[in-house]
């Protein structure tokens, strides 16, 4: 299949159909724009700082920061592709035409990618071959530029030569935050603007009507359909509840916004604003006519609603749960069907890998006699329409499907694959100090959603990563003598309610009163631009809101017409977490693990938080977990009646009683912690399906447990364990041995099957089940044929193993609850292709438990039935051998069918990680790794 230019989600922002001809004049346009525009801030940062004042400022910054740095040169970080996420029109055109990269746009991509082949035998002194030095300050002679934003004398922004990371130092709190806002706009203005429009459901009028843009605004606005009044009220509400810290947060926000807007004005006057504004028709490259709108408080809430829904909102799916339960009960009867459903749900599987190893943290226990269930009548569920009144290109026959598919492509890697952590107590390290390797797995975008920064000022001292546009504080990073990070925990803070309709389809019963639903609309229209040639079109997005949240589905329950609504505890509270982040950045507050846990208790999104200093480690699971009514089962839709509401629920502000801090999984100085979005603790059920005997968290747990048992753990050893786990095929490492045991329970005489078995065994014994290149840069896998065989075999064997016993209806329903596969190249899986994150969701535990049952091995928490061969070993073997032969016979071109990035049959490319463009600069693919996007390696040597 011939290669074509990449056209990823939102790609029309950079390469519309008509842009190729336009690019024939790229050199002329670049020259013209270069004459009109000064260097971009990133390019300027690559220019040596000059002048005594600049040099002295840089030296003072480095000296002051170093005095409070207790890491001793042993803190490192990385965030690909690079710090600079803004590009002028000239730089975009040069990138599109010739592949030229703006300064610091991808200089962290190479080191990040090289760890895949460079980690074996890693030593501490080589860590920064693959990571940045994350020490405070800028070393002597390494300041590339020094800026006093807007001419202020109370803040400087020093950028280092190597990476262009901003080191912001203020002498006043206002100046410090002003500098943080200015630096954020320097690095991510276009992205910030893009996502404030996504959060408002107004992306298409801003960036064009491409299917990806339609899909993005539809996806996010449905879950957070806020009015402007809602947005404006949330930041003030969050501050009002927090006393002095709340007042300080508001002042910080205002100073930060002032800095953002000062950069907008400066870049407009100097004509070095992001070139996407020209390509999307907001600015004129010749006359400079047009406006870049200033940012306001409400914009930050719009941004926060997008980030919160991507990474910090666990739960939901109650309607799909109901449908699969009904399918199970239809096949087996109510009692047995419920037992089968529960065995696949694995709410509290005894074989699941845990982050908190000791203790019990009961949350949402399964009631013996569930109250308030509102299960739909068979065949009655219909999704609530969102889009109405389509015109022009929005009315095309395939417009709906295209926008939905594009949204999945654009955001799935961020939504699905979220973060890992490896933290080892000093009792088991070589130095006696704790060691941590951790970071968020936030997908791969260009520019990246996160940005690096160092902030030093009154009450703030930190370096790390923050989401663009929300970077008034470091959100994940290090302080003077401690570091912290997070993984998405996903415990259930979302419930579905069945509101009974009255009068018509747009009135419902609220506590006995027939109440009108609130209609919230966005009327969006677009026209073609240079960046997006999508023909003119328009539509209206319409959401019906109730006291119990927005309407998601319509159905009947016992013959009564209902609307299913979705209510999450963080709805109308997108800004509440600001206080926790403020505390994490405050060196006067945070002096140890207990204060760390106290800070993250103020974060209402669902995260696992990890901490390390020179003496202690700690863990805490955050989130506003609503206390449910007695007797309800939050796995399923509930009647919207007062008896089944959250305890002490106030619908006006969407507040309730939340589980107390001691009820959240937590500890200090556990021997080690691992997290890869696995189950948090005993009796603390994960909202997502698939937390059973095999989980990608096992890839970390097995390796770290072995290191701890040996003792003398070093930073390099922990990095190596993470990197190896990031190349492991979970199916090969933890499930394939059992499958082969069944296959070889009798001699394998078929030549094709024998060849496949021998290849798989060689991959395990010689290659450890890792997906690794034959040599650095070869772009060919060792044991490529075995990898191809397993990729082809897995979906075939799962269907053949389970569908005959479950029946097609129940099997299909369960696959909607939990996809079968999520291999690196599985474009059909929940993460999509080229996303990096893999093996989070799949049927590995089901296959593992079922195969062990067939083999007669002990299984804790078994499935309700044995499915492979109906429990008969010989019949199960026949099923596996038949599907293995079919898989082995499938050519690479069929297993890896190719796409706009890869030729058919190119296995390495099919797995490769490709940054999805959100602006005008594109990057080449890198080899597959399953690891955090932003990552820290830390070991503090002393404490204040």
Question: Would you kindly provide a written description of the structure presented here, covering whatever features stand out?
Answer:
This protein has 944 residues and is α+β, with helices and mostly antiparallel strands. Helix content is 37%, strand content 16%. The strands form four sheets. The chain has a ten-stranded mixed β-sheet, with helices on both faces. Strands 6, 7, 15, 16, 17, 18, 19, 20, 21 and 24 form a ten-stranded mixed β-sheet that branches. The longest helix has 28 residues, at 243-270. It starts with 18 loop residues before the first helix and ends in a 6-residue tail after the last strand. Residues 1-58 and 410-416 have low confidence and may be disordered.
Provide a brief overview of the structure:
Helices cover 37% and strands 16% of the residues. The protein is of the alpha+beta class and 944 residues long.
Reconstruct the topology from this structure.
Blueprint: H1 19-23, H2 26-36, H3 41-45, H4 52-67, E1 75-78, H5 89-98, H6 109-118, E2 132-133, E3 143-147, E4 155-160, E5 166-170, H7 173-199, H8 203-207, H9 211-223, H10 228-240, H11 243-270, H12 276-279, H13 297-311, H14 318-332, H15 334-345, E6 382-383, E7 387-392, H16 399-416, E8 420-424, E9 435-439, E10 445-446, E11 450-457, E12 460-467, E13 476-478, E14 482-488, E15 494-502, E16 504-510, E17 513-516, E18 518-526, E19 537-546, E20 549-557, E21 560-568, H17 578-584, H18 593-600, E22 607-613, E23 617-622, E24 638-639, E25 666-668, E26 672-675, H19 696-710, H20 715-725, H21 730-734, H22 736-743, H23 751-767, H24 784-806, H25 808-817, H26 844-854, H27 873-888, H28 892-895, H29 907-911, E27 916-917, E28 935-938
Parallel strand pairs: 5-11, 10-27, 15-24
Antiparallel strand pairs: 1-2, 1-28, 3-4, 4-5, 6-20, 7-19, 8-9, 8-26, 9-28, 11-12, 12-13, 13-14, 14-22, 15-16, 15-21, 16-17, 18-19, 19-20, 20-21, 22-23, 23-25
Helix pairs in contact: 2-5, 7-11, 7-13, 9-16, 10-11, 10-13, 14-15, 14-25, 17-18, 19-20, 22-23, 23-24, 24-25, 24-27
């Amino acid at each position: 299949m011939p290669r074509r230019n990449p056209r990823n989600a939102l790609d029309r922002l950079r390469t519309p159909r008509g842009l190729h001809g336009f690019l024939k004049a790229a050199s002329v346009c670049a020259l013209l724009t270069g004459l009109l525009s000064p260097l971009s801030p990133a390019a300027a940062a690559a220019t040596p700082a000059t002048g005594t004042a600049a040099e002295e400022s840089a030296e003072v910054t480095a000296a002051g920061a170093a005095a409070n740095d207790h890491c001793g040169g042993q803190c490192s970080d990385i965030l690909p592709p690079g710090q600079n996420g803004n590009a002028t029109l000239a730089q975009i055109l040069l990138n599109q035409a010739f592949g030229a990269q703006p300064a610091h746009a991808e200089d962290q991509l190479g080191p990040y990618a090289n760890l895949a082949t460079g980690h074996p035998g890693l030593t501490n002194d080589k860590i920064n071959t693959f990571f940045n030095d994350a020490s405070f300050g800028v070393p002597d002679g390494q300041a590339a530029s020094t800026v006093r934003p807007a001419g202020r004398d109370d803040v400087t922004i020093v950028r280092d030569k190597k990476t262009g990371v901003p080191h912001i130092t203020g002498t006043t709190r206002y100046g410090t935050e002003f500098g943080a806002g200015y630096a954020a706009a320097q690095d991510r203005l276009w992205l910030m603007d893009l996502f404030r429009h996504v959060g408002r459901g107004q992306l298409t009028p801003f960036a064009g009507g491409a299917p990806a843009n339609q899909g993005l605004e539809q996806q996010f606005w449905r879950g957070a359909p806020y009015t402007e009044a809602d947005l404006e009220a949330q930041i003030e509400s969050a501050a009002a509840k927090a006393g002095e810290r709340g007042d300080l947060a508001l002042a910080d926000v205002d100073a930060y916004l002032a800095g953002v807007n000062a950069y907008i004005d400066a870049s407009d006057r100097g004509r070095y604003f992001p070139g996407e504004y020209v390509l999307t028709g907001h600015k004129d490259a010749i006359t400079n006519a047009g406006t870049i709108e200033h940012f306001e408080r409400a914009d930050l809430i719009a941004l926060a609603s997008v980030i919160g829904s991507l990474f910090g909102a666990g739960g939901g799916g109650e309607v799909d749960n109901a449908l699969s339960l009904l399918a199970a009960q239809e096949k087996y009867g109510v009692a047995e069907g419920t037992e089968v459903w529960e065995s696949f749900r694995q709410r509290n599987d005894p074989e699941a890998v845990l982050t908190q190893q000791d203790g019990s943290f009961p949350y949402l226990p399964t009631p013996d006699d569930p109250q308030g269930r509102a299960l739909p009548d068979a065949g009655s569920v219909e999704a609530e329409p969102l889009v109405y009144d389509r015109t022009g290109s929005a009315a095309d026959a395939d417009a709906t499907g295209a926008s939905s598919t594009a949204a999945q492509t654009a955001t799935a890697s961020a939504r699905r694959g979220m973060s890992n952590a490896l933290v080892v107590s000093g009792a088991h390290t070589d130095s006696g100090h704790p060691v941590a390797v951790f970071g968020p797995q936030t997908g791969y975008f260009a520019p990246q959603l996160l940005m690096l920064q160092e902030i030093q000022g009154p009450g703030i001292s930190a370096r790390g990563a923050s989401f663009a546009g929300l970077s008034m504080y470091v959100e994940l990073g290090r302080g003077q003598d401690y570091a912290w990070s997070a993984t998405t925990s996903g415990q259930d803070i979302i419930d579905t309610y069945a509101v009974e309709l009255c009068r018509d389809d747009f009135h419902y019963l609220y506590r006995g009163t027939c109440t009108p639903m609130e209609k919230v609309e966005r009327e969006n229209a677009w026209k073609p631009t240079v960046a997006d040639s999508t023909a003119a079109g328009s539509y209206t997005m319409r959401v019906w809101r109730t006291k119990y949240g927005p309407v998601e589905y319509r159905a009947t329950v016992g013959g009564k017409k209902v609307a299913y609504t979705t209510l999450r505890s963080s709805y109308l509270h997108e800004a509440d977490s600001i206080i926790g982040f403020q505390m994490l950045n405050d060196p006067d507050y945070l002096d140890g693990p207990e204060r760390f846990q106290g800070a993250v208790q103020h974060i209402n999104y669902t995260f696992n938080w990890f901490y390390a200093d020179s003496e202690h480690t700690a863990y805490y699971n955050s989130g506003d977990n609503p206390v449910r009514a007695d007797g309800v089962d939050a796995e399923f839709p509930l009647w919207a009646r007062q008896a089944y509401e959250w305890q002490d629920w106030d619908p006006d502000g969407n507040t309730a009683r939340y589980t107390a801090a001691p009820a959240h999984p937590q500890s200090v100085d556990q021997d080690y912690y691992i997290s890869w979005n696995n189950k948090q603790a005993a009796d603390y059920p994960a909202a997502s399906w698939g937390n059973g005997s095999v989980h990608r968290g096992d890839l970390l747990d097995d390796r770290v447990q072995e290191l701890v048992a040996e003792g003398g753990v070093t930073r390099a050893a922990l990095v190596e364990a993470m990197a190896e786990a990031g190349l492991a095929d979970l199916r090969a490492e933890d499930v394939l041995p059992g499958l082969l045991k069944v296959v070889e329970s009798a001699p394998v005489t078929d030549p094709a099957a024998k060849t496949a078995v021998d290849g798989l065994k060689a991959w395990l014994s010689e290659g450890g089940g890792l997906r690794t290149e034959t040599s650095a840069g070869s772009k060919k896998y060792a044991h490529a044929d075995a990898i191809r065989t397993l990729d082809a075999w897995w979906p075939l064997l799962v269907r053949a193993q389970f569908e005959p016993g479950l029946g097609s209806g129940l099997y299909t329903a369960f696959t909607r609850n939990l996809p079968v596969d999520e291999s690196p190249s599985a474009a059909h899986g929940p993460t999509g292709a080229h996303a990096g994150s893999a093996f989070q969701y799949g049927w590995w535990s089901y296959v593992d438990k079922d195969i062990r049952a067939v083999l007669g091995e002990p299984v804790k928490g078994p499935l309700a039935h044995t499915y492979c061969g109906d429990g008969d070993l010989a019949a199960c073997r026949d099923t596996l051998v038949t599907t293995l032969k079919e898989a082995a016979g499938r050519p690479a071109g069929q297993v890896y069918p190719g796409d706009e990035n890869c030729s058919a049959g190119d296995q390495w490319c099919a797995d490769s990680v490709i940054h999805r463009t959100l602006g005008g600069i594109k990057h080449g693919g890198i080899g597959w790794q399953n690891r955090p996007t932003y990552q820290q390696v830390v070991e503090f040597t002393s404490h204040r």
